[in-house]
Amino acid sequence: xxxxxxxxxxxxxxxxxxxxxxxxxxxxxxxxxxxxxxxxxxxxxxxxxxxxxxxxxxxxxxxxxxxxxxxxxxxxxxxxxxxxxxxxxxxxxxxxxxxxxxxxxxxxxxxxxxxxxxxxxxxxxxxxxxxxxxxxxxxxxxxxxxxxxxxxxxxxxxxxxxxxxxxxxxxxxxxxxxxxxxxxxxxxxxxxxxxxxxxxxxx
Length: 203
What we know:
- The chain has helices at about 20-50, 85-110, 115-140, 170-195.
- By secondary structure, it is mostly helical.
């Protein structure tokens, strides 16, 4: 017997879908987790900036644009994609984030060994991104819209770098800032996308 009453693959728009009670509860739980992590990600970014010194904490500092191997932010066209495809992209990003956050933590352990709170926050963020990604994969599978292919999380030893190779001190701090920003962008995007599945239209 089918475990779902509605399928994202069968829906041609974002109109409400009727879910079985246990699936509705899982969607709400996952959405609440995404909402909580959105708040945590803001705190993480603020804490990260505070520990990097100048020029990161200076008013008006505008970090240069960088391209991170393995992950980018949500594309401007993301909002126009079908909901099932948006959720797949969310899941893929959440799958890539834990290894990147772990790499940032390792860099910060060398650069800021006397910032245990930041190191703990980065460790928590990696764990929480992994948990949210797993919960989202469960929702997608129940809706018949499972992410395609194997899990996208890189190996835990994957170095954090750009196309220019291993970073120096400033570049390592800049890459860490970028990863923390991406973490916030993707958990916030996941929250927004999941809100369209929550009965009652939670925004």
